[in-house]
Design a protein that fits this description.
Blueprint: E1 3-4, H1 27-38, H2 46-51, H3 56-83, H4 90-99, H5 101-130, H6 143-160, H7 164-192, H8 195-199, H9 211-226, H10 231-234, H11 242-267, H12 273-277, H13 284-292, H14 294-328, E2 339-340, H15 346-366, H16 370-398, H17 412-445, H18 448-458, H19 466-488
Antiparallel strand pairs: 1-2
Helix pairs in contact: 1-7, 1-11, 1-14, 3-9, 3-11, 3-16, 3-17, 4-5, 4-16, 5-6, 5-14, 5-15, 5-16, 6-15, 7-11, 7-13, 7-14, 9-16, 13-14, 14-15, 16-17, 17-19
């Protein structure tokens, strides 16, 4: 494969650069990238996923917390895009600027791992949906399903290698297509909504636990369906205008919030909580089927397949980009910064989809479920989100940066409040995730140190400061504990 590092607008760069050439992704394409990466498979299973551990009242509270928290995070990414226009691939660059290269590497590594595990989850969900029409695909983790999923992986892989711009435009078209069944669902279910059903046992049965326990149970689900809010920030280096990055984040967030809340809350007026909890996923299908008949379920299954295809494409792009920029900044091996003659980070693509393929085979052997995959993917991304929020809080508090972009100097209290709430929300998410997924995350974060050491050896730089050695030691200790618990059966995916 022909590779080159001489593509002007897309050449590898350090975490901070002031002479970057503008990209060619305009506002509409950036919004589609945000919406396309957020709206994937999660929304189609949302009614059952939320109701499995919470009553309608707790679901409402969960959405209020998520709506406010994610809005604050979206505003934080918007502020950082304006205030730090020299930082590309925000999830990585903000963590690096906050606390050094190893922390920046871990943010990029965690984001990348989250992305390709999430893509495995997408493929399992898509072929599980095809199982409605072709039983051989089962729940998406049968041998036939894994073969089909593998074909999809490599078809998308070679399509993206032909050019980022074309892939992003295709993502925009698919994003518009997958909004149609979602809007149809919301309209039809809203017309059939029963207030009595919604109010019945509003706070859930005693077996669901306290309201706090119920709200906690919704958190990983709501974060999973909102992963992708940072999509425009990850692709900031390719944006035609830097201010479009922040605008795309807010617009995409608001569109998705309306869709997600609509699907989740309206379903509680069609089935009671125990009925929703017992539904087979994608649970939107039986909800719409009850309202309009069998054709409603068919619409949902087709919509899921289209949506997952678009989501898989969007996350393939994001995953490769999350390796490419750090490689240009010297914290990933330099070969990951190489591009082909179309300006695509080809080596990063090969590694990403190679990991997707490997995990698909492991899914076949372990029969890992869609919910287990998305929970692990979600837990991996919580730390990168926290780094971004805390970096935003640091800047809002200090008021640093070029005078032309010192946004918080005009509204200091506003931006301190926004970034503080975003940071608190991210900490709450870590608490809600629970010890299980934090331990599993450590098991996936720790091996990244080997990749980081390779990068530092290539650049003849010292790998770790004293503080970073302490961080690595703590991470390795948690990974050992996690591995030991997995081996003894006290911990499982």
């Amino acid at each position: 494969m022909k590779t080159s590092q001489n593509t002007p607008s897309l050449a590898p760069k350090p975490a901070s650069t002031s002479n970057r050439s503008p990209g060619n992704l305009k506002l509409g394409l950036l919004v589609a990238l945000v919406v396309g990466s957020i709206i994937g498979s999660g929304i189609f299973g949302l009614p059952q996923n939320m109701a499995s551990g919470a009553g309608a009242g707790a679901i409402v509270i969960g959405w209020l917390i998520t709506g406010v928290g994610m809005l604050m995070l979206a505003f934080t990414y918007q502020m950082l895009a304006i205030k730090k226009p020299d930082l590309d691939n925000g999830v990585y660059a903000y963590a690096r600027a906050l606390s050094g290269e190893y922390v920046g590497f871990n943010a990029a590594w965690g984001y990348w791992v989250s992305a390709w595990i999430g893509n495995v989850g997408y493929l399992v969900a898509a072929f599980g949906a095809l199982g409605y029409f072709y039983p051989a695909f089962g729940e998406g983790n049968t041998r036939t399903a894994i073969i089909g999923a593998s074909v999809v992986v490599w078809v998308v892989h070679f399509m993206v290698l032909r050019g980022i711009q074309g892939a992003v435009v295709l993502n925009a078209v698919v994003t518009l297509a997958k909004l149609v069944p979602l809007l149809l669902f919301i309209v039809l279910v809203a017309m059939a909504f029963q207030v009595q059903t919604f109010e019945l046992n509003f706070w859930g049965d005693a077996k669901l636990g306290s309201v706090l326990d119920q709200v906690r149970s919704t958190m990983l689900v709501t974060v999973w369906v909102f992963i992708g809010i940072e999509g425009a920030s990850v692709y900031s280096a390719r944006a035609a205008k830097r201010e479009d990055v922040g605008q795309a984040t807010i617009i995409g967030f608001l569109v998705c919030l309306v869709l997600l809340m609509g699907v989740s809350l309206l379903s509680t007026g069609i089935f009671t909580q125990p009925e929703l909890a017992a539904l087979k996923n994608p649970s939107m299908a039986p909800v719409l089927e009850k309202v309009v008949g069998t054709w409603g379920a068919v619409v949902v299954y087709v919509g899921l397949i289209v949506s997952v295809g678009g989501g898989f494409l969007a996350w393939t792009l994001l995953a490769a980009e999350s390796l490419f920029t750090p490689a240009g900044g010297g914290v990933m091996p330099s070969w990951l910064a190489k591009q082909n003659d179309k300006g695509v980070p080809a080596h990063a693509m090969w590694l990403t989809n190679g990991m997707v393929q490997l995990f698909l085979l492991l899914t076949l052997l372990s029969k890992a479920s869609y919910l287990a995959l998305i929970s692990l993917s979600t837990a991996m991304i919580l730390i990168p989100y926290l780094f971004s929020a805390v970096y935003g809080l640091k800047l809002a508090w200090q008021g640093t940066g070029p005078p032309a972009v010192q946004v918080e100097n005009r509204h200091p209290r506003r931006y301190i409040a926004i970034t503080a709430l975003a940071s608190i929300y991210c900490l709450w998410l870590l608490y809600a995730a629970g010890l299980k997924y934090l331990l599993l995350s450590a098991l996936l974060y720790a091996p990244g140190a080997v990749v980081y050491l390779i990068a530092k050896k290539q650049s003849n730089e010292r790998a770790f400061t004293l503080r970073e050695w302490v961080l690595l030691g703590a991470l390795c200790l948690l990974a050992v504990v996690s591995a030991s618990m997995l081996a003894t059966g006290r911990l499982s995916l």
